[in-house]
Amino acid sequence: MSDLRDLYQDVILEHSKAPRNYREQPAADHKAEGFNPLCGDHFTIFITLDGDKIQDISFQGSGCAISKASASMMTQTLKGKTRAEAEHLFTRFHDLVTGHAEGGSESELGKLEVFSGVSEFPVRVKCATLAWHTLNAALEGKQEAVTTE
Amino acid sequence: MSIAAKPVSGAFDVERVRADFPILEQKVHGKPLVYLDNAATSQKPRAVIDAISRYYEGTNANIHRAVHHLSEQATEEYEAARVTAQNFINAASSTEIIFVRGTTEGINLVAQTFGRANIHEGDEIIVTDMEHHSDIVPWQLLAGDRGAKLRVVPINDRGELILDEFAKLLGQKTKLVCVTHVSNALGTINPVRRIVEMAHAQSIPVLVDGAQAVPHLKVDVQALDCDFYSFSGHKIYGPTGIGVLYGKKALLEAMPPYQGGGDMILNVTFEKTTYNRLPYKFEAGTPDIAGVIGLGAALEYVSGIGVEKIGAYEHELLDYATAAVSSIPGLKIIGTAKEKAGVLSFTLENIHPHDIGTILDQEGIAIRTGHHCSQPVMRRFGLDSTARASFAMYNTKQEVDALVRGIERVREVFA
Question: Exposed (0-12), middle (13-18) or buried (19+): which is B87, by Cβ within 10 Å?
């Protein structure tokens, strides 16, 4: 059962129950929708940029504990970061949840490290990365909804 | 949801059935496998696995072609499986049995042949709110192509078709009615005989998606009087990639071919091709011969036990499971039709089905989570997804107990 606790860490459960930055931004200058067609997870990410910096980031939608907590913690982490920093963190985060993290990258991820348990559950990687893929789409200004497929 | 009233001769020996399924012996994450994802696909008995091995080890040759011994033998076994399938659903003739890749291909075949020949601009195709995507999208494609329209029969809060609304949809523009026999997401058994009567009263043909019905109910296509009936082998203990489309002879004969190729022709010149007779007209190319033989073995296996007996046992299991989960706080059953088969779809308050699935998997319990390829019916209940336990003849009450303990475990993790 230790595996299960690695996945459902208290911080993750807490964020899934009380997600941060869970709100719409009607005036957001970047916005994208993301779907996981396999399980029906569906999120919208809202971003307001100040120059190159993420001034405000929020989300709405529905999904499992992993996808919701990931979206919540992503918004907390990225507020105040530049676009380049956000993209870099996505790469690191992706490496973490797919079990490809190199030594030293953990410190960069900070609190997001709690998602390391996901790497033991390959089918849940898409849950953990849905918000991040959607973020990418929002920043790139894609018009079509992204999917994890 | 009463236990089937029909008396069943001889007790159903679930342990004997389980012994026929080698995969059930294994452990998952150190726990005995509890396989409750049978509506997605069922496990295979030794008889099916052996039939496929025997074919490849001793009979493999192409069918309907050569004069040599192996080809004759392979053809004989292939055609024997067709007769087995015919008897299994009580079709009037074996020429009404067309082997396809599965339910989906059977439906697409009808859409592309019967549909293209008979459905035109302004026409209407009736589907129901509980159809699987495979009985929606082929019709949507056809309707889009033809300028025809899809009309949808609504369902009530229990997950039953509202037949009064269905009656209102039937009209002169209706060219086909498409309905699932048993809902994969809710377990509802639809009153197909009644639906066919209502449609036939206005000379409208009916296609039935039988994927979830054949493993659980005795299906008699002549008694149902449906015009098309499609089902998959893999949901009835047979191989994947093989299934049956039944069609009434007169309709099949009038339909243009589906795919062109070998075996579906009598004579080919560059000017004109004469198509083969039924059922070969619809079986272009070398088919999945081993799959057909495996399917035949599966149907014989099921018939050997008796599908009514299987259905009665599964019903008992479903009633037991329904009662057992009903006491779990926050658990809601989705699909509470009076007539149900094999499916227990549910949600847990504040816990996403995907998380339920992962935690149960750690307990060795395999269920399906998600929209079950039936997004319209999920939306009807205001959901994105459910957790679904679906039963087969080899499941036991002990496994239902394990499911209940597993759900308690899920609640502990999220407490």
Answer: middle
Residue among B372, B374, B384, B409 with most chain A CBs within 10 A, to mutate: B384
Structure tokens at A31: 């916005």
**A75, A97 Cβ separation under 8 angstroms:** no
Q: What are the structural domains of chain B? A: 14-32+306-413 (3.90.1150.10), 49-304 (3.40.640.10)
**Assembly ipTM:** 0.89
Residues of A in contact with B358 (CB under 8 A): 4, 7, 121, 123-124
Topology of domain A2-147 in CATH is Sufe protein. Chain: A (3.90.1010)
pLDDT in tens, A14-56: 999 999 999 999 999 999 999 987 777 899 999 999 999 999 9
Q: Which residues pair with B120 in a beta bridge?
A: none
Which residues lie below 8 Å from residue B120, measured CB to CB, with a gap of 6+?
A: B146, B147, B148
Classify each residue of B340-376 as buried b or exposed e, where b means 16 or more C-beta atoms within 10 Å of its C-beta: bbbbbbbbbeebbbbbbbbbbbbbbbbbbbbbbbbbb
Q: What confidence tens digit (pLDDT) does each residue in B321-373 have?
A: 999 999 999 999 999 999 999 999 999 999 999 999 999 999 999 999 988 89
Quick check: helix, strand or coil at residue B274?
A: strand
φ and ψ at A72, to 5 degrees?
-60, -50
B10 pLDDT more than 90: no
CA dihedral for B392, B393, B398, B401, sign (positive or negative): positive
Q: Where are the alpha helices (DSSP H) in B288-374?
A: 289-305, 307-326, 353-362
Q: Which residue on chain B is closest to A64 by alpha carbon? A: B352
> Which of the residues B48, B143, B153, B373 is marked catalytic?
B373
Amino acid at the residue A13: L
DSSP string, B313-328: HHHHHHHHHHHHHHTS
| Residue B16 neighbours by CB under 8 Å, 6+ apart | none
